[in-house]
Design brief:
Elements (H helix, E strand, L loop, with lengths): L3 H4 L8 E3 L2 H11 L10 H15 L5 E5 L5 H8 L3 E5 L12 H7 L4 E3 L17 E5 L7 H14 L6 E11 L3 H14 L4 H13 L8 H8 L11 E9 L4
C-alpha cells in the first residue's frame, strides 16, 4: 500500500490557488475522517494542508501551526515525522476553542505555545522553522494586525528555504465581500505576493465548475443560533497560498 508520504511527495503548490472538488474527493479517498469531521470548509482544508506539507516540506522539519484549535493536522504531521509547534492562545478569541488541557493530553506529541502569533511571540526560536502554516485562521485576524503576523512568519522561518502555507476562508460573493477582499489583498501583499495575481485566480475560481464552495449545511453549522437574517448565505471558498511555491 502506498503511504501518504509517498503519495503526496510531488504535490504541486502554486503561489495562489483555490480548493477544488477533485482535491476534496481525493482527500475523502485517502484521509478518512479528516475529510469529513467538520462538515464545513475544514474538511477540504485539513487534508489539503497535509498534502501541501508532504509535497513542499521535507519530513523531519520543524513546523509552526498558527491558531490550530483542535490540532488534528498537527497531530497527523507528528505521526508522519514532523516536529510541530502550535501557537494558539486557547482563550476563545475569534470563536476559537478553550479546551487547552484536553488537547494537550489528547495530542501529546504536539508542542504548544499559548500565545497570539506575531513577531513578538515568546517561546519560539527565530530563523529556526522550516514552515509556518494555518488553516481557516488568518481571515479572522483584524487587518491592522496582519503586518505583525507576516513579520512573525519572516522572523521565525529559516532564511532562504522556509515556506509558509495557508488555507484561508474567502467570501467571493455576499455579506462582507468587500471587507473580505481587502483583507485577503492585504494579506497576500504582506506575504510578498501581488494583488493582481490574486484577482486573476479569484476570477477563475468564480467560474470553475470544480471550485469547492461552502455548502448550505456547512453554512448552517457556522450560523449556529444566529438568526439567518443576521448571517445569510455567502459564496465562500478556500484560497490557498504558498510562499515560495514549489510548482
Amino acid at each position: 500500500m502506498v503511504s501518504l508520504a509517498e503519495r503526496y511527495a510531488g504535490y504541486v503548490l502554486p503561489a495562489i490557488g483555490y480548493g477544488t472538488v477533485r482535491d476534496f474527493c481525493d482527500s475523502v479517498d485517502h484521509f478518512g475522517t479528516l475529510a469529513t469531521v467538520s462538515g464545513d470548509l475544514k474538511d477540504h482544508q485539513r487534508p489539503w494542508m497535509v498534502k501541501a506539507i508532504l509535497g513542499g516540506v521535507p519530513r523531519g522539519s520543524r513546523l509552526i501551526e498558527i491558531g490550530a484549535g483542535q490540532p488534528l493536522v498537527a497531530d497527523l504531521l507528528v505521526t508522519l515525522g514532523y516536529d510541530v509547534t502550535v501557537v494558539d492562545p486557547y482563550d476563545g478569541s475569534g470563536n476559537g476553542p478553550r479546551e487547552y488541557e484536553h488537547f494537550r493530553k489528547t495530542y501529546a506529541g504536539v508542542r504548544y505555545v499559548r500565545e497570539v502569533f506575531n513577531d513578538e511571540t515568546p517561546g519560539l526560536d527565530p530563523a529556526s522553522y522550516d514552515a509556518v502554516y494555518s488553516i481557516s485562521v488568518l481571515e479572522h485576524i483584524p487587518i491592522p494586525a496582519l503586518a505583525g503576523v507576516c513579520a512573525g512568519i519572516r522572523k521565525f522561518l529559516v532564511p532562504g528555504r522556509g515556506r509558509t502555507v495557508h488555507a484561508i476562508d474567502h467570501i467571493l460573493k455576499g455579506t462582507h465581500q468587500d471587507y473580505n477582499a481587502e483583507h485577503l489583498g492585504t494579506l497576500v501583499e504582506g506575504l510578498g505576493l501581488k494583488r493582481d495575481a490574486l484577482a486573476r485566480i479569484l476570477a477563475v475560481a468564480k467560474d470553475d465548475v470544480d471550485t469547492y464552495f461552502l455548502s448550505a449545511e456547512g453554512h448552517n453549522r457556522w450560523r449556529g443560533v444566529t438568526p439567518y437574517e443576521q448571517f445569510p448565505m455567502r459564496q465562500v471558498i478556500s484560497v490557498q497560498v504558498c510562499v515560495p511555491p514549489n510548482c
